[in-house]
Specification:
Layout (H helix, E strand, L loop, with lengths): L3 E4 L3 H14 L2 E7 L6 H5 L2 E6 L10 H11 L3 E3 L9 H9 L3 E2 L4 H8 L1 H10 L15 H11 L3 E5 L9 E3 L5 H16 L4 E5 L5 E9 L5 E13 L2 E7 L6 H17 L4 E9 L5 E7 L6 H8 L3 H9 L17 E8 L1 E2 L5 E2 L2 E2 L2 E3 L6 E5 L6 E2 L6 E9 L2 H14 L1 E3 L5 H7 L3 H4 L7 H5 L5
Parallel strand pairs: 1-2, 1-4, 2-3, 4-5
Antiparallel strand pairs: 6-7, 6-8, 9-10, 9-12, 10-11, 11-14, 12-13, 14-21, 15-16, 17-20, 18-22, 19-21
The protein binds ligand MV4.
Ligand MV4 binds next to strand 8 and strand 13.
Length: 450
């Protein structure tokens, strides 16, 4: 195992990684912007290095400063967390060149999966189901039209450099194909500096179901069941649960097997996620692969008894994962995560940075809170608005829901608006209670609280 690592991140995920390190006897180096100097993760770390001013593009995104901090403190490896440099192939490559271990997959894997059209081609070639659509990017509108006619309308035009919903255009009427194709290319070019687009048949009312995987250097490739992340608003996840209420054991096994196939075909190492669209008939299709640990990883930890961060560290240190022999595809109970953001759901989820005058987290059986704040903490306007993650775990979904209601009632956050009232409303919604939700849930069911 490593003796010392650097955490190239901030907030709750920085603290989450440091806590895993402490239990493994690994020393930690925090990096921080001047804005974050007084935050708890900076105090918690064994050492801390300031890497620049508040804006992320002058601190958390400056690769050379982070590498220098690792070198001067003698850290052997860098954990990128999520966001910032976590899926930056150049950073992973720079680490390699500087003899630092990047705690994640190879730069080649990050690159291949970062290009969504090439990820799709890779999956199709290894037998993972993909949505019917184009082979590679579309060079002309005539090519787009040919594929659209082959798969049938409606279709979805996607930016190959996109992901997370940016640069997508639906086409329901063939008459709109040309304008939407041009608009998607222009938008993608402006947003990503890459105007490549591809096309898929539009899957109606899909669920977002993603499989957590781990892979080590010893040929162990495991699927830690799935997460259902259908409750999203404008591509921001708000509630995630594991297992998915929509899966049978047979479907869980089939999706797990497909995810492992994808991992083997790409020679993937470390933790990752294969995202699938699940349609109303129970057919699943590859959507994207995330080559990082995700915000919602704790629900998978709860139902599989795994510590995904520790496994990442073991795998990166060249050790075998410790969970390879766990019974595959068998969830233990049910877990749900609620993202508590500094946003006001009564006003279009507008960000509400500011000082938290009182912070009292719920406790008791089956409750886990991942946060980095306490009473008196300031939520900075410079970074994402995540204040805390509430994770509840029960023997079954019904117990998890009851526990969630109790925990949200116990949760006290004063001084800023948060998404807690929104979550309480969702827990009263009949469709959510019975687990019958798709990606249109918030727009179609929660319209009146937005
Ligand atoms: C789709 C789709 C329907 N059909 N692809 C959204 C983000 C990006 N990862 C891909 N996305 C979608 N791709 C086909 N062929 C619907 C979405 C989608 C979506 C997916 C998951 C969760 C929320 C979503 C919200 C809107 C659209």
């Amino acid at each position: 195992m490593f003796k010392k690592i650097l955490i190239a991140n901030r907030g709750e995920v920085a603290l989450r990684v440091m806590r895993a390190c402490k239990e493994l006897g690994v020393k930690t180096v925090a990096v921080y912007s001047t804005e974050d100097a007084d935050t708890y993760p900076v105090k918690y770390a064994d050492e801390a290095v300031c890497i620049g001013p508040a804006p992320a593009n002058q601190s958390y995104l400056i690769m050379s400063n982070i590498i220098a901090a690792a070198k001067t403190t003698g850290a052997e490896a860098i954990h990128p967390g999520y966001g910032f440099l976590a899926e930056n192939a150049d950073f992973a490559r720079l680490c390699r060149e500087q003899d630092l271990v990047f705690i994640g997959p190879s730069p080649e894997c990050i690159e291949r999966m970062g290009d969504k059209s090439s990820a799709r081609e890779t999956m199709k070639a290894c037998g993972v189901p993909t949505v019917p659509g184009s082979d590679g990017c579309l060079d002309t509108v005539d090519e787009a039209r040919a594929f659209a006619e082959r798969v049938g309308y409606p279709v979805l035009i996607k930016a190959t450099a996109g992901g997370g919903g940016k640069g997508m255009r639906e086409v329901h009427d063939p008459a709109d194909l040309e304008s939407q194709y041009q608009a998607a290319r222009t938008e993608a070019g402006a947003a990503f500096g890459n105007d490549g687009v591809y096309l898929e048949k539009l899957v109606m009312r899909p669920r977002h179901v993603e499989v957590q995987i781990l892979a080590d250097d010893f040929g162990n490739n495991v699927a830690l069941c799935e997460r259902d992340c259908s409750i999203q608003r404008r591509h921001q996840k708000l509630i995630e649960e594991a297992p998915s209420p929509a899966l049978t054991n047979d479907l869980r096994r089939a999706m797990g097997v497909a995810a492992i196939k994808a991992v083997r075909a790409t020679n993937y190492r470390n933790a990752g996620t294969i995202e699938f669209l699940l349609d109303e008939r129970g057919h699943f299709y590859f959507m994207e692969m995330n080559t990082r640990v995700q915000v919602e990883h704790p629900v998978s930890e709860e139902i599989t008894g795994t510590d995904i961060i520790k496994e990442q560290l073991r795998i990166a240190a060249g050790e075998p994962m410790s969970c390879a022999s766990r019974a595959p595809f068998t969830p233990n109970g049910h877990a749900i995560e609620f993202r508590i953001n500094a946003e006001d759901p009564a006003h279009g989820f507008r960000p509400c940075p500011g000082t938290i005058t009182k912070f009292e987290a719920p406790a008791g059986p089956g409750i886990r809170v991942e946060s980095y704040v306490r009473s008196g903490s300031r939520i900075s306007p410079y970074y994402d608005s995540l204040v805390a993650k509430l994770i509840v775990h029960g023997q079954d979904r019904e117990e998890a829901l009851a526990r969630a209601r109790r925990a949200l009632d116990e949760f006290v956050i004063e001084g800023i608006a948060t998404t807690i009232p929104f979550h309480k409303r969702v827990l009263e919604n009949e469709a959510f209670i019975v687990g019958d939700v798709a990606t249109d849930f918030i727009a179609s069911q929660m319209g009146d609280v937005l």
